[in-house]
Specification:
By secondary structure, this protein is α/β, with parallel strands linked by helices. It has 2 domains: 453 residues, Rossmann fold; 125 residues, ANL, C-terminal domain (GMP Synthetase, Chain A, domain 3). 34% of the residues lie in helices and 22% in strands.
């Protein structure tokens, strides 16, 4: 168990000092002296050596003990080795979070190969771009993705072998509803499947069988500071980048969470894991970290958040790393009524802005169901492996993103002067963490832009987020730096606009369940804000409601020139495959609607003429 005293040569009192000294960089850097020099596979094996008979994975009723998990990892590694995978090779992995995905990752890590995460739900051009960028010769994916269109993309890349795994590969015997549902999904996808017609294809189970029959002995491969995995960022506000992380990065996260959440996380707890393994947040915080801490990973690769009651009843999990959209579904799920949720210990949201009122509603529902936990809010970046910090203590401000994990630090610099900001001053946020990526894969220029260095050589990751901290070191995100736009104020003077500030205020209105702001081009004002809103319980957007929201903005010190000029009602906000707001799509929606109006006006004017 990665706790604190003894194993890493630090006392609990020293840990508490580390926890409080989040702005004392030299103090925080002491943490790195505790980090082990080993691969992710070795670290998991070392962490699990005394609990081999405990349950590591629960896949809809099929459980793997740590002993069984390592048997599968070792055999699959041998199977991959028999098929030519060697240290330093790159292998594509485009899988949902299933036991086979987890086994594949650790098998590749044991060999010393680089796992290039492929987002198999991307549009075909995105998948092609990732495969070409990886230059991988082997791709491991799920059967449901490999249709004739996917095959055509693969045929245009360097991929020579495709290893496919069915979602029901690890299901227990016998009939049950999840199995029936997954079988239906598999059957529907087989209609367009290209597996039987592709000589490149082989089954995941056949590679495992090769490994079981192999006589070779693979020793875990470790080299300091080498890349072990690459994953694409969400690309919600620009072109996706591809951070590459090391063994040291991913192992550090497990230790940091074990130290920071020592009172919340315990061996034999369980965590609900629903996000795909190709998202670093999932790999780091919902797979590797919990497994290293002796926590059972409850998997659901086809998660339906509107039926969260089903998984709560089935798994009775203790922890859930999730997103605000799923918490909304939890709040709205009527089937949870009268359900005992006293088993819940830690729920943390991340990846998107969470309105304070959503936290309040969720906690009211939890309390009504015998749970007194608070919904935590986390903050992180793919470039730092996932979680950088979260509201780990009770009573933190609902709009806060908490304080850093032990071993992490931050600083905030004024955007114009680059001087360090003091409490309650907004500036650009920079992160220091042992989980900080090695580089952007194959992009030296982007890597250089991602980091700054102090005079003593200390390296900081540039988040491009605007933030401030309070007197207690709690962090607050003020918006994305790249989303800062220029507009004209009431006097016609060009000035900076923070769309996220407006979003946070509009979201306070009781009729607004969610709001997103986009800045659209304007010939007189340069740009102007447009609000897209989801309204509560069938409320319809009208002029009275708009006036009411605008008054709320004025009362909350939103300058008149950045109050939304238009409001658009939606049933749902478009999201990227990484479940972040797709601002590009929102802008496209606005432009298409505006062009359509222009065409109608043009036709009307022609008729009048």
């Amino acid at each position: 168990m990665c706790t604190y005293e003894g194993e890493y040569g630090v006392t609990k009192e020293e840990l508490l000092k580390l926890r409080k000294d989040v702005l004392n960089l030299k103090r925080v850097m002491e943490f790195e002296k505790m980090l082990p020099n080993m691969s992710a596979y070795e670290f998991l094996a070392d962490s699990s050596k005394d609990r081999l008979n405990d349950v590591a994975i629960n896949y809809l009723g099929r459980t793997y003990t740590f002993r069984e998990l390592f048997d599968k990892i070792d055999n699959f590694a041998k199977g991959l080795y028999e098929n030519g995978v060697r240290p330093g090779d790159t292998v594509g992995l485009g899988m949902l979070s299933t036991p086979e995905a987890i086994i594949s990752f650790y098998a590749l890590n044991k060999i010393g190969a680089l796992t290039y995460m492929v987002n198999a739900t991307h549009e075909l051009n995105g998948i092609k771009e990732e495969l070409l960028d990886s230059q991988a010769k082997i791709l491991i994916t799920n059967t449901i993705f490999y249709d004739k269109n996917f095959k055509e993309v693969v045929d245009q890349t360097s991929i020579e072998k495709v290893i496919v795994s069915a979602l029901d590969e690890s299901f227990p015997k016998g009939f049950f509803m999840d199995k029936a549902m997954f079988k239906v999904v598999e059957s529907l996808k087989k209609i367009g499947s290209a597996i039987s017609k592709d000589e490149k294809c082989t089954s995941w189970s056949s590679i495992l069988l090769e490994g079981e029959n192999s006589k070779i002995n693979i020793k875990p491969y470790y080299e300091p500071n080498i890349g072990i995995a690459v994953a694409s960022t969400s690309g919600s506000t620009g072109k996706p980048k591809r951070p590459m992380i090391t063994n040291e990065n991913i192992n550090s996260m497990a230790i940091q969470l074990g130290m920071t959440a020592v009172n919340e996380i315990a061996p034999n707890d369980s965590i609900l894991t629903t996000l795909p393994i190709w998202i670093f947040y999932s790999l780091f915080n919902s797979i590797h970290e919990p497994l290293c801490l002796g926590v059972t990973v409850d998997l659901d690769p086809l998660f339906n958040s509107k039926r969260i009651d089903k998984r709560l009843r089935q798994y009775r999990f203790n922890h859930w790393n999730t997103i605000p959209a799923y918490i909304e579904d939890f709040v709205n799920c009527k089937r949870i009524k009268n359900m005992d949720l006293s088993h819940l210990k830690l729920i943390t949201t991340g990846g998107d802005y969470r309105p304070p009122k959503l936290k309040k509603l969720a906690e009211q529902k939890l309390k009504a169901n015998n749970s007194d936990i608070e919904i935590g809010q986390g903050y992180g970046a793919s470039e730092c492996g996932g979680c950088f910090g979260y509201t780990s203590e009770r009573g933190m401000k609902p709009e806060s993103i908490g304080v850093p994990l032990i071993g992490n630090a931050y600083k905030i610099l004024d955007v114009d002067t680059h001087k360090e900001c003091q409490a309650n001053e907004s500036g650009e946020l920079f992160l220091y963490s042992p989980t900080m990526m090695k580089e952007y894969y194959g992009d030296e220029e982007a890597t250089k832009k991602a980091f700054i260095y102090d005079d003593d050589g200390t390296k900081w990751y540039r988040t491009e987020d605007m933030a401030h901290f309070d007197e207690n070191g709690q962090l607050f995100i003020d918006g994305r730096l790249r989303r800062i736009e220029i507009s004209r104020d009431a006097n016609g003077v060009p000035t900076k606009v923070f769309p996220d500030k407006v979003k946070q205020v509009v979201s306070l209105h009781p009729a607004v369940d969610r709001c997103e702001i986009v800045m659209v081009d304007d010939s007189k004002r340069i740009t102007r804000p447009v609000a897209y809103v989801i309204l509560h319980n069938g409320i319809t957007l009208d002029n009275d409601l708009i006036r009411n929201i605008n008054d709320l903005c004025l009362r909350n010190n939103v300058e008149s020139y950045i109050i939304p000029t238009e409001y658009k009602q939606l049933n749902e906000i478009p999201m990227t495959p990484s479940l972040k707001v797709d601002f590009s799509k929102l802008k496209d929606m606005y432009e298409k609607e505006s062009n359509q109006k222009q065409k109608v006006l043009f036709k009307l004017n022609n008729k009048r003429s």
